[in-house]
Design goal:
296 residues, mainly alpha, 14 helices, globular
Length: 296
């Protein structure tokens, strides 16, 4: 990679961190005015249209091969539909900064799932990282677990979302691609749309009209924080080591927490800072090269 290309991709990675950090307050605005599962439906419907159009314009739109459809189905169901529906439901109760910290704990859960599913060696650093991550999640949730049952459920939803994304990551790791990740992305989003539609109808009733705030939120979350961000994460993933990308994305919940504290006056207490530090350290240990040398 030449120096100019390297600098361009570093800026792309930094932009991705900022985009996802701002997406959490934007999601909070969206689910505050639209039921969360319907918001997730419109998010992926819009993002799918954007990516289909993008790939068609570049003449790279292809129908997935039969070999890739299990990946499309699992990623669309878990990484997109389940993750967005669960985090959206949690954001209806919790402030976005606190939610983003737990939702981005996914790399911690990849380590034990890989060890169980793929029979990959679980190094000491990875095991320690998982332990610290669990303590971090407990530190964040502990102050409200006894005080409010709704908040306890919201924390459980976030942990479920992180686990769903982790299962998808491990499935992707074991899959041998016939097509590129980018060309499969709109089809994964289409799977998410197909799954979210009946769930939204059953759980939240007919689609409500989209308020102005919801439309403004979707205008950012769908084309920018979903469609463009998915392309960006694939692009930087091709240029940098996975550990480098994972560590850079660690800045996302910290920035999201800062933005949330400014925009929503979210209280940043000792338990939240302790949890952020523990989860960040846990991810650092779980994604260090020595801890992931067998994960290939």
């Amino acid at each position: 990679m030449d120096q100019r290309s390297h600098a361009r991709h570093r800026w792309l990675l930094a932009s991705l961190v900022l985009i996802w950090a701002f997406s959490w307050p934007a999601l909070k605005v969206g689910v505050a005015s639209t039921p969360p599962i319907w918001f997730s439906f419109w998010r992926y419907a819009t993002a799918a249209v954007c990516l289909f159009a993008f790939l068609a314009a570049r003449r790279r739109l292809v129908f997935p091969a039969r070999h890739d459809w299990p990946l499309v189905a699992v990623s669309g169901a878990l990484q997109m539909a389940a993750y967005s529906a669960l985090t959206g439901s949690a954001l209806g109760v919790l402030p976005p900064g606190r939610a983003s910290v737990l939702a981005f704990s996914t790399p911690i859960w990849v380590v034990p799932i890989s060890a169980w599913w793929l029979r990959e060696r679980l190094p000491r650093a990875g095991l320690l990282g998982v332990g610290l991550g669990l303590f971090g999640a407990l530190a964040i949730a502990a102050p409200s677990l006894l005080a409010a049952k709704r908040e306890a459920l919201a924390y459980a939803l976030l942990m479920g979302a992180a686990a769903a994304w982790a299962v998808s990551i491990v499935f992707v790791r074991a899959h041998r691609f016939r097509a590129s990740a980018l060309t499969l992305a709109p089809w994964q989003m289409l799977v998410a749309v197909v799954l979210l539609l009946p769930i939204a109808l059953v759980m939240e009733g007919p689609p409500p009209p989209l308020a102005t705030k919801a439309l403004l939120s979707l205008a950012y979350v769908a084309p920018v924080a979903t469609a463009f961000a998915y392309w960006a994460v694939v692009e930087v993933g091709r240029r940098f080591a996975a550990s480098t990308v994972s560590m850079a994305l660690l800045a996302t919940p910290a920035l999201g927490l800062l933005i949330s504290s400014l925009a929503f006056h979210e209280e940043v207490g000792a338990s939240l800072l302790l949890g952020l530090a523990l989860i960040g350290t846990g991810i650092r240990l779980a994604t260090r090269p020595a801890a992931t040398q067998d994960f290939r």
